[in-house]
Design a protein that fits this description.
- This protein is an alpha+beta fold and 320 residues long.
- Among the domains are: 100 residues, Multidrug efflux transporter AcrB pore domain (Alpha-Beta Plaits, 2-Layer Sandwich), CATH 3.30.70.1430; 92 residues, Multidrug efflux transporter AcrB TolC docking domain, DN and DC subdomains, CATH 3.30.2090.
- The longest helix is centred in the first third of the chain and has 21 residues.
- The chain is elongated, with a radius of gyration of 31 Å.
């Protein structure tokens, strides 16, 4: 049976070969036309590094303003959840705050799962495009829907490029200018800039001489501020021994007592005489802004851009 199959293929091949030899000039002409026409299609068909896939899963990277609290970020996640609830193609999602290398309270991530192909009418790419427009309407938060990254630990935007330079402030200035020019190009889709130099900070300067006269060291002052403002795990507690659950006991100021810079004046430290010394009598406070994270690429300061273009990758690169 197998031999008969190969004999049949041989007869078909022989028939085509006889036709090609009898009309060889026509065959050569058609070959030349096909080769030259392929150049036209190559020049006009969109090109990219990797084909898009419909895995039925994608991520949403979320950023609230620098300095935002966990409570504020959580409120914005609820707004995003309300947007996701409008799409019946979504069957589940997982969200987390502070995920990633920086672990900041103003960053979060959604991992969204879609229904099976047979149970939905639109593709993953169509849903991502629709969500991008809806998420852009939310105030006080930036959210970017993208495919799952091919490499773990990275973001999933297909277009990523870096602006580098020896001076971080100059890199930031040029990055802002480039972002402003690229945002008007709708073909690039939502555009995110990773470099942020406007994180609210509070600088504390200790009067070392005055603190020393009261028996206080710079280390003890810093420890008091860290414990009361940020908290410190001092012990662990088991409700029922052996139940596998353990709770951290965290020492910090009462919730809401240290919300604003002026509230630090409420901190008292005990001097070497036993008297209570108010913090603002031995230290001064100054508000400023600074970088959330300083990233480098090839030993130079860098600003990384992330985008999900609506056109072919080659065209998006040409625009940039």
């Amino acid at each position: 049976m197998l031999e008969a199959f190969f004999r049949g293929m041989e007869k078909v091949y022989s028939a085509f070969l006889r036709v090609a030899l009898n009309f060889r000039w026509i065959v050569m002409l058609l070959t030349v036309l096909v080769v030259y026409s392929s150049g036209f299609f190559f020049a006009n068909i969109g090109k990219g590094f990797m084909p898009t896939q419909d895995e039925g899963r994608f991520i949403i990277s979320v950023k609230t303003p620098l300095g935002s609290s966990v409570t504020y970020t959580e409120e914005k996640l609820v707004e995003i959840e309300n947007v996701l609830a409008k799409h019946e193609e979504i069957v589940g999602y997982f969200s987390a705050i502070g995920i990633g290398r920086n672990q900041q309270a103003n960053s979060a991530i959604f991992i969204v799962r879609m229904a099976d192909w047979s149970d939905r009418e639109i593709s993953q790419q169509e849903l991502i495009k629709a969500l991008s427009g809806e998420l852009a309407q939310l105030a006080g938060v930036k959210a970017f829907a993208t495919e799952l990254p091919a490499v773990g630990g990275s973001r999933g935007e297909p277009l990523q490029f870096v602006l580098v330079g020896p001076d971080v402030n100059e890199v930031s200035r040029l990055a802002d200018q480039l972002q402003e020019r690229l945002l008007v190009r709708d073909e690039l889709g939502p555009l995110d800039l990773g470099l942020e130099l406007d994180l609210p900070q509070l600088n504390l300067t200790v009067d070392r001489e005055r603190a020393a006269n009261l028996g206080l060291s710079t280390q003890s002052v810093a420890m008091a501020v860290n414990v009361l403002a940020g908290g410190l795990d001092v012990a662990r507690y088991n409700d029922i021994p052996g139940d596998g659950e353990r709770y951290d006991i965290r020492l910090k100021a009462e919730e809401g007592k240290l919300t604003y810079p002026d509230d630090l004046s409420l901190i008292y430290l005990r001097s070497n005489t036993g008297d209570m010394v108010r913090l603002d009598t031995i230290a001064s406070f100054e508000s400023s802004i600074g970088p959330a994270v300083i990233s480098k690429f090839d030993l130079q300061y860098s600003a990384k851009f992330f985008s999900t273009p609506t056109v072919a990758m080659a065209e998006a690169v040409e625009i940039v």
